[in-house]
Specification:
Elements lengths: L5 E3 L5 H13 L6 E6 L3 H12 L3 E5 L7 E7 L8 H25 L2 H34 L5 H25 L2 H34 L3 H8 L2
Parallel strand pairs: 1-2
Antiparallel strand pairs: 2-4, 3-4
Helix pairs in contact: 1-2, 3-4, 3-6, 4-5, 4-6, 4-7, 5-6
The structure holds fe (ii) ion (FE2) (2 copies).
The site of one fe (ii) ion has 5 residues, from α5 and α6.
């Protein structure tokens, strides 16, 4: 992945942060990103961003939330729309790209780069699961009354993947490229099958039942 510019909001007065964030987003071309360093107030900034620029960006966690947050803000192509399938499929692609970087680094034996990408990958996956398990799945279950169906299968596959993700974290922490490739390879296999089921079945079904989904997706984006 190519280097992206950094926007450090932490030193700015709170009332200037949203303005800076919106200007940074507006200055990007479609597909470009900026890494944003911010504070625990990210949730407030996100709310402002949703009010002013909904549909024009995606955001992703770069590291686990703590006192200070680092997030990636991506400019979307105009008119891309915020349907459930589009929103979640883009996030799958983001996770896939981070996995590929982790695997490349492991193959190169570059354990420092491997650990860095692995942490980003795990943060992205954890966030993705959270958006599904605490946002999309409950909305689907409440609307359709189907609680023992596709979402139950998806949740159990998430658990299976979480076990493999723990092994990947261990590999990152110990610099074990071999374990990374082994656990990662199995995870990739499970994840590909899982994502196909979601993209071809669960997301389109959800869109059908929950459309228009902007309000729901805004809620999910704040999870
Ligand atoms: Fe999933
Ligand atoms: Fe998913």
């Amino acid at each position: 992945m190519s280097a992206v510019p950094l926007l450090d909001l932490t030193a700015l007065p709170a009332e200037q942060r949203l303005g800076q964030l919106v200007s940074a987003l507006d200055s990007l071309s479609a597909g470009q990103s900026v890494t944003v360093q911010t504070t625990a107030q990210w949730d407030d900034l996100l709310l402002g961003l949703q009010e002013q620029r909904w549909g024009q960006y995606d955001w992703r966690p770069v590291s686990d939330p703590a006192e200070q947050r680092t997030v990636l803000l991506v400019r979307l192509q105009s008119g891309v729309g915020q349907s459930i399938p589009a929103f979640f499929t883009r996030d799958h692609h983001h996770c896939d790209a981070l996995y590929a970087e982790t695997e490349n680094a492991a193959n190169d034996g570059d354990t420092a780069r491997m650990a860095e990408y692995c942490r980003q990958f795990l943060a992205a996956m954890t966030h993705h699961f959270q958006m599904e398990e605490s946002g999309l799945f409950p909305a689907f279950e409440n609307k359709t009354g189907m609680r023992q169906g596709p979402t139950m299968v998806m949740r159990s596959e998430h658990e299976q993947m979480r076990g493999l993700m723990r092994q990947m974290l261990q590999a990152a922490e110990t610099g074990d490229a071999e374990l990374m490739l082994k656990a990662g390879g199995t995870l990739l296999f499970v994840m590909q099958q899982h994502n196909v089921k979601e993209e071809q079945m669960l997301y389109p079904m959800s869109e059908m039942h929950l459309r228009p989904a902007d309000a729901l997706l805004q809620e999910i984006q704040r999870l």
